[in-house]
Backbone:
């Protein structure tokens, strides 16, 4: 079968995506905008319900995306290099899924054609989070975002 009829994420390597294609892979779930803790020995990741102060919870997008890494030094830009070991990203993350050779889920806006499908499917977590400015100790805010 010819690869030309396939969507870009199935026919192109991540390193070959245009900026527009790369950015469109983000489904707006906001799971990468919540703080997580890591067990240093096992590399296990524990997600919290505490979001970055730059997250606009109404839109599910960063309020200062171009300057986010300068304003929030812990903010990690997802790049092909980061995706060489994407264990710290949620299982549902489109970038992680593609890096691991999996396809996008049915609820991803690129598949569904509906920009709100991530919300309808229950994957946008910022609707269930609190801002870091109001959180206190992260250990008190552990959650399981499975699903």
Residues:
């Amino acid at each position: 079968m010819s690869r030309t009829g396939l969507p870009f994420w199935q026919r192109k390597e991540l390193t070959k995506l245009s900026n527009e294609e790369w950015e469109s892979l983000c489904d707006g779930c906001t799971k990468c905008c919540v703080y997580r803790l890591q067990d240093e020995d096992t590399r296990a990741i524990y997600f919290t319900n505490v979001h970055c102060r730059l997250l606009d919870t109404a839109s599910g997008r960063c309020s200062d995306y171009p300057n986010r890494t300068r304003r929030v030094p812990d903010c990690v830009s997802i790049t092909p290099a980061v995706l060489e070991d994407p264990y710290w990203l949620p299982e549902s993350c489109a970038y992680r899924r593609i890096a691991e050779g999996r396809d996008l889920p049915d609820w991803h806006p690129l598949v569904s054609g509906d920009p709100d499908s991530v919300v309808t499917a229950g994957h946008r977590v910022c609707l269930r989070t609190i801002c870091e400015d109001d959180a206190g100790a992260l250990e008190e805010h552990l959650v399981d975002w499975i699903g």
Summary: Residues 15-143 form one domain. The mean pLDDT is 91.
